[in-house]
Specification:
Layout lengths: L1 E7 L3 E7 L8 E5 L6 H8 L7 E3 L1 E2 L2 E2 L4 H7 E4 L11 H11 L4 H14 L15 H13 L5 E5 L7 H16 L3 E6 L2 H7 L2 E6 L2 E6 L1 H8 L3 E6 L5 H8 L15 E5 L7 H10 L4 E7 L3 H9 L11 H7 L1
Parallel strand pairs: 3-9, 3-10, 7-8, 8-9
Antiparallel strand pairs: 1-2, 1-4, 5-6, 10-11, 12-13, 12-14
Helix pairs in contact: 3-4, 4-5, 8-11
Length: 322
């Protein structure tokens, strides 16, 4: 994407001059509060919405001038798929194959392969109206894969799923990526981005405000903190003084008199030096825990709100985005 803009009535910019690159074979996680512009970007990249200005290429094809070529190269699983509840999963997959130009025999074979891939073999000949939410999501993923796309767009694919269904979908996304599929993933689950994404982009007010690997982004907002539980509160002051050579020491907390905190870029690597240092001074330790910055900390730092917090755009912008 280069200087991509999508403007709505009243001059509201859901996407405001966005520049973004996603590499072939990458899983790219796209995060943002409600109304930030995530879904608008996906709609533009999947040719469902024309940009006001700027340019976007998907699989080397312009989303405006070469829209047909883009559609042949991508698979799309949106939040709300229009699935006929009276059809069976197998019927819908065969129909999708026919729409993509597969011959009847090839479409039948592809449907069987995909039902097995997403774990719906037993449910394949049942009407979709009886599917659970997790089964519908898996079928939606299978539908997006019928024509073997090189780029897969997943718009909040696990929203509303139970942990088991979510983990199953994550495994399938990883497997697809290992086979070479590029994945563009929008999500409101920070854990999902950490589990799946090679890189993460955070969008707010239609602009990219942070980008990098999950670990790089977390490192920008702070160092890991070692929380040391002492055997006796009377040694807390001496322990804080000794730990100043390790890194910044947290101030005392009256609610936890035996607890001492020190920050260190080494994270878990600092545990041994800390234990050795305090042992040399005869200070007994009960436990050491390491707390690293989270993607939620990054999100709050760059957007001013948690991921499930209020919208960062005016209400009008949120309305058109959703």
């Amino acid at each position: 994407m280069r200087d991509l803009v999508r403007e709505y009535k009243g001059g509201i910019r859901a996407v405001d001059g966005l520049d973004l690159d996603v590499a072939t074979g990458e899983i790219y996680g796209f995060l943002g509060p409600n109304g930030a512009g995530k879904t608008t970007c996906v709609r533009i990249l999947t040719t469902l919405l024309r940009p006001t200005s700027g340019r976007a290429l998907v699989a080397g094809c312009d989303v405006v001038r070469d829209a047909d070529l883009v559609r042949r190269s991508i698979g799309v699983a949106l939040q709300e798929a229009a699935i006929d509840p009276l059809m069976t999963g197998r019927e819908l997959l065969r129909m999708q194959g026919a729409l993509h130009g597969l011959r009847a025999r090839e479409a039948r074979g592809r449907a069987s392969d995909l039902l097995e891939r997403v774990g719906l073999v037993e449910a394949g000949d049942r009407r979709i109206g009886g599917y659970s939410g997790g089964m519908r999501r898996r079928l939606d993923l299978a539908l997006a894969l019928v024509h073997r796309p090189v780029v897969l767009f997943l718009d909040e694919p696990t929203t509303g799923l139970d942990p088991t269904s979510r983990a199953a979908l994550w495994r399938e996304v990883r497997a697809l990526n290992n086979e070479g599929t590029t994945v563009f993933l929008t999500t409101q689950y920070l854990e999902e981005a950490e589990q799946l994404a090679d890189r993460v982009g955070i969008i707010a007010r239609g602009r990219l405000v942070a980008e990098g690997t999950p670990n790089d982004l977390k490192a920008r907002v702070g160092m890991p903190t070692l929380h040391i539980e002492l055997a006796e509160a009377e040694h807390a002051g001496e322990a804080r003084t000794a730990l100043e050579g390790i890194g910044p020491v947290e101030p005392p907390d009256p609610r936890a008199p035996t607890r001492v905190g020190v920050r260190s870029a080494s994270g878990k690597g600092a545990i041994a030096p800390v234990v050795r240092l305090l042992d040399e001074r005869g200070i007994a330790i009960v436990a050491v825990e390491v707390e690293s910055p989270s993607l939620d900390d990054v999100f709050i730092a760059v957007t001013g709100t948690g991921l499930e917090g209020g919208a960062v755009q005016p209400p009008e912008a949120e309305a058109v985005e959703s």
